[in-house]
Amino acid sequence: MSTVLVIYAHPQSDKESSTKALYNHFIKAYKISHPDDKVIEHNVSEYMPFPLNKIAISIYNKSMARQSFNADEERFKEARQKWIDEFVQADKYVFVNPMYNLFIPAEMKSYIDIVMQVPDTFHYTDAGIPEGNLHNKKAIHIQANGGNYHGSNGAPDASSLDLGHQYIGTILHIMGVDDYQGVFAEGMDHDPQNAEKILNQAFEKAEEAGKKF
After folding, report:
1. Nearest by Cα to 198 from 156, 159, 145, 162
2. Which site in 82, 169, 181, 208 is 20 to 30 Å from 67, CA atoms measured?
3. Tens digit of pLDDT for each residue in 63-77?
């Protein structure tokens, strides 16, 4: 049995969106194909309790200086550690978001700042190079874009502009996760007359990815 950790970032979780619909098709197919797996879901747009704020920075600085923490820092550190441990213990990661200005939502970036932690998810070599601690894991990025970036719908490849997909992949690579793929629903805003057709094609890709993930 595998544990799947879903990091979902969308402020309108109570409404049907292209992002939510794409994810629903993926996760339904996944659960059918992997009935014994455990799925943990977090919508970080609704709950993001441990951002990289002044308390987090103080904890980092005191850790480096081997200084003790005050009561607020200790509570923050212990609660945040549960999120880090959950990330470390998961076998598969699913990142779900709409594209915001060529990037991921701020809340997803804040979540990555939580789990990108020495010595839990990566460490530095003697040469000062980051090296991952997480191995034999896999990840998928599910994203809805209004425009075309990944060569869909006959459009030219503009994937270099999808900074969010690249960023997630780079961060995962640093943490040791190299099995990384993306499923995209894109071009609906660019071609609204064919939006339904575009989404249906994306749903098929999401379902196929869910079966194989």
Report:
1. 145
2. 82
3. 889 999 999 999 999
